[in-house]
Write a sequence for this structure.
């Protein structure tokens, strides 16, 4: 009797200890981001959001100490992203793949997530189809159709009839062009010209001349956030397109807080639609922006940092539901249908598409105090990606 009780107790103890050991396994998150090259700002911003979340919420999720392993994929270099993901899975044995600044990187890694059954949390890349490339993909950023439709509706409602579209010639640009045309023409608008600009070192001058000659009322622009937008806006001003009465409308990538100061006054009045603004008025965003400036005094909080921050929230909350289990199927099942309050407003993960559902705001660049800000004046709540079939 005594022996069997001791044996039974021993068995229980062994089980408890095995459980504790499993719970104490670190949670390895492999972050694949552009940390160098023309899109290095994306990596920095997303990393800032990720680390701020850990700073505020502690660096253990459901008893598992979070270990970040960061790999630089240098921007548009799908082969490098793919190799980084393979290394993270095989060598580092990560539990979760996350990051992804640009679409080609997310597309390249999707098959690896599927094969390894690893959750893949997309923190920027925004071509609609990305989430269809693996059952293990979840997205906390935005999709191009989602951020484009509201500005197309706004234009049609505000007396703009003739638009020239300009988009970067790759996934997100194609999505933006398709959605803009669809929404704008359905509302009675006309597309009077369209161009796709190269992703590598684009020279916008010839395009700007073509636009001027076509006499549109407005240009709709999508280029990946950063240098390209700064250079387009500079050319737009220098070639007197604004003086010719042509308006510039865009997705918010163009006048993202990270580049707004570099564009300066020519950005004033640019109407755009997007999911996050530093100037968004909510208690959550007030807390977020204050904490962000405290942690990173020389950087402005923007949509990329928020997507990194929310991506970490998604991982933390999914693990709470699974009791610390990060295996792909359990993790994704837990993440589907999640809803929470982000600094950007209420957001959620669509249980069917695994894509983000969120409010999209229509904003205008204004001077607020000493700073240029995107000031929200209209919104489309609980907006799902209209790019999904
Ligand atoms: C993308 O490559 O998916 C991408 C990059 C920058 C943006 C939006 C989308 O601003």
């Amino acid at each position: 009797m005594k022996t069997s009780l001791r044996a039974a107790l021993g068995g229980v103890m062994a089980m408890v200890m095995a459980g504790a050991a499993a719970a104490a396994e670190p949670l390895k998150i492999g972050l694949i981001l552009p940390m160098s090259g023309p899109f290095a700002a994306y990596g920095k911003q997303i990393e800032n959001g990720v680390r701020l979340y850990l700073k505020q919420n502690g660096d253990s999720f459901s008893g598992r100490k979070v270990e970040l392993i960061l790999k630089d994929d240098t921007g548009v270099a799908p082969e490098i992203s793919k190799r980084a993901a393979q290394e993270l899975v095989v060598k580092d044995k990560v539990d979760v793949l996350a990051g992804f600044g640009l679409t080609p990187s997310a597309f390249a890694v999707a098959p690896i997530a599927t094969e390894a059954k690893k959750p893949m949390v997309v923190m920027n890349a925004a071509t609609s189809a990305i989430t269809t490339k693996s059952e293990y993909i979840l997205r906390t950023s935005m999709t191009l159709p989602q951020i484009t439709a509201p500005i197309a509706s706004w234009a049609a409602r505000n007396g703009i009839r003739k638009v020239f579209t300009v988009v970067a010639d790759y996934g997100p640009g194609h999505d933006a062009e398709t959605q803009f045309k669809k929404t704008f023409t359905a509302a009675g608008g006309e597309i009077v010209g369209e161009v796709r600009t190269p992703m590598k070192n684009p020279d916008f001058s010839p395009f700007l001349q073509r636009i001027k000659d076509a006499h549109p009322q407005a240009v709709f622009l999508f280029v990946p956030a950063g240098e390209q937008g700064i250079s387009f806006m500079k050319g737009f001003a220098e070639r007197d397109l604004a003086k010719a009465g042509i308006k510039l409308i865009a997705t918010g990538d163009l006048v993202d807080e990270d580049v707004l100061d570099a564009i300066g006054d020519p950005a004033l009045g640019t109407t755009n639609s997007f999911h996050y603004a530093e100037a968004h008025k909510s208690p959550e965003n007030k807390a977020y922006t204050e904490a962000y400036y405290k942690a990173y005094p020389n950087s402005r909080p923007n949509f990329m940092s928020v997507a990194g921050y929310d991506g970490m929230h998604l991982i933390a909350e999914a693990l709470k539901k699974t009791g610390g289990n990060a295996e792909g199927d359990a993790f994704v099942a837990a993440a589907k249908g999640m809803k929470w309050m982000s600094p950007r407003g209420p957001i959620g993960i669509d249980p069917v598409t695994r894509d983000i559902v969120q409010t999209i705001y229509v904003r205008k660049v204004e001077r607020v105090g000493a700073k240029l800000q995107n000031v929200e004046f209209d919104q489309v709540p609980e907006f799902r990606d209209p790019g999904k079939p």
Observations:
- The first strand starts at residue 27 and ends at 33.
- Residues 102-103, 125-127, 172, 224-225, 253 surround P-hydroxybenzoic acid (CB under 6 Å).
- The mean pLDDT is 95.
